[in-house]
Design goal:
With 149 residues, this protein is mainly alpha-helical. It has seven helices and two strands. The chain has a two-stranded antiparallel sheet with strand order 1-2. Helix 1 (5-24) runs antiparallel to helix 3 and helix 4 (66-83) packs antiparallel against helix 5 (94-111).
């Protein structure tokens, strides 16, 4: 069995997507959110695989690989919608849904060979989950409960 350079590159992209998906989910696992390690890792690897298959799997055919990315966005939108719950006036799961969405985007970027862009997106995602969450709590704590008259 001969393994081509394209196949080795695709395997590298899938492995990197798995690492990226695993890194993004660290905060979600620590805070025990609904969509955890396996979900994020699978979303990242799956979106990467769809991207790779769309770009490399139909060589010689007239296809538009950007259509695959568009369908990944739609599919992950449905998955993210399942993570959002409403309890009375409160809505929970928006950050989890957004983290699934960005994890899919990272998978698409890595699948397309945009390693630096995907890595930077992971960094920005981690910063938003770890740094901005405590900052948002502090802002809410100093916000007055009632509007001033």
């Amino acid at each position: 069995m001969h393994v081509s350079h394209d196949q080795l590159e695709a395997i590298l992209r899938l492995a990197l997507a798995a690492v990226c998906g695993g890194v993004i989910v660290i905060e979600r696992e620590i805070t025990e959110k609904t969509a955890g390690l396996r979900t994020h890792l699978l979303v990242c690897v799956g979106s990467s695989l769809f991207t790779i298959a769309g770009a490399l799997g139909f060589v010689g055919h007239t296809v538009d690989p950007t259509r695959v990315a568009a369908q990944v966005v739609t599919g992950v939108g449905f998955l993210g919608a399942g993570a959002i719950m409403r309890e009375g006036m409160s809505v929970h799961g928006l950050t989890t849904a957004a983290s699934l969405w960005v994890t899919a985007a990272v998978g698409v970027a890595v699948g397309a060979g945009m390693y630096l862009v995907g890595g930077f997106a992971v960094l920005v995602t981690l910063l938003s989950l770890w740094v901005l969450h405590p900052l948002a709590r502090r802002i809410r704590a100093i916000r007055p409960d009632e509007p001033e008259k």
